[in-house]
Amino acid sequence: MDYSILIRLILAHLLSDFVFQSRKWAEEKDSKGFTSGYLYLHILVTGITALLLVWDINWVLPIVLITVIHGLMDGIKSNLNKRFFQKSSSVYLFVTDQIVHLFVIAIVWISVSNQSDLFSTQLTHLLQNQKFWLYMLAYIWVTIPIAVIIGKITEGWSNELNETQPSTVTSTMLVKAEKLGLKNAGKWIGIIERILIVTFVINSQYASIGFMLAAKSVFRFGDLKDSKDHKKTEYIIIGSFLSFMLSIITGIALKN
């Protein structure tokens, strides 16, 4: 398949949405929607960028179609934000919006380039490829499932920490500690860490794993080096090592 036009259309989308669009434009679009002048300026920039990059007279109407749909989606996203999320930006709506933008580009590209049959054939081959499903299994396994398993393994130690914490830490200190941590940050750190480890292992980038683990040790355990709460330190180390071990084993199994 010839992906050259598709690559340029995606590049145009990234340039117009993230490089050529200022924060002021984006904030006013999100707050005012179809009544924002910046929305229509953004639509114009999106269309011109795509036309310049593709530079093919046969793609003028398809690019106009993509650009119009892009503008409609941005306006609708603003209304959904105000109605359901009641704030200037929702990360879930933002991600969904970007996925739909790329989906529209892909559909128009497939239709106009007359490659639908070839694309369907390649997609069928991909879905029938055992290696593809093994990779899907491995990457899904190292996200939430491993986190749940580690949680179950360390549940006894977690309960022990909760039981001993009130006698060693004042309620004021607990409130301050809770405010210092970001909500669900630890969970996402673990997910990203395991995905990186599996990726490094299957590409034989073992030095990168060592660098990442060393960096995490500095940032993760630095605040505990002067702490007398050895139980908490040991609990964190056990959870981290379990995460490392399961991720590395998964990567090795996938590679072989």
Helix and strand pattern: HHHHHHHHHHHHH
Count of DSSP E strands?
0
In DSSP terms, counting alpha (H) and pi (I) runs of 4 or more, how many helices? 13
Strand content: under 5%
Structurally, how many domains make up the residues? 2
Mind telling me the C-alpha Rg?
24 Å
Mean pLDDT: 84
Uncertain segments of ≥5 residues (pLDDT<50)? 167-179
Task: Provide structural commentary.
By secondary structure, the chain is mainly α. The chain folds into 2 domains: 4-126, no CATH class; 130-255. The chain contains 13 helices and no strands. Helix 3 (37-54) runs antiparallel to helix 4, helix 8 packs across helix 13 (230-255) and helix 11 runs parallel beside helix 13. The two termini are 30 Å apart.
Task: List the SSEs and their pairings.
Elements: H1 4-19, H2 23-32, H3 37-54, H4 60-85, H5 91-112, H6 116-127, H7 130-141, H8 144-153, H9 155-168, H10 171-180, H11 185-202, H12 206-221, H13 230-255
Helix pairs in contact: 1-3, 1-5, 2-3, 2-4, 3-4, 4-5, 8-13, 11-12, 11-13
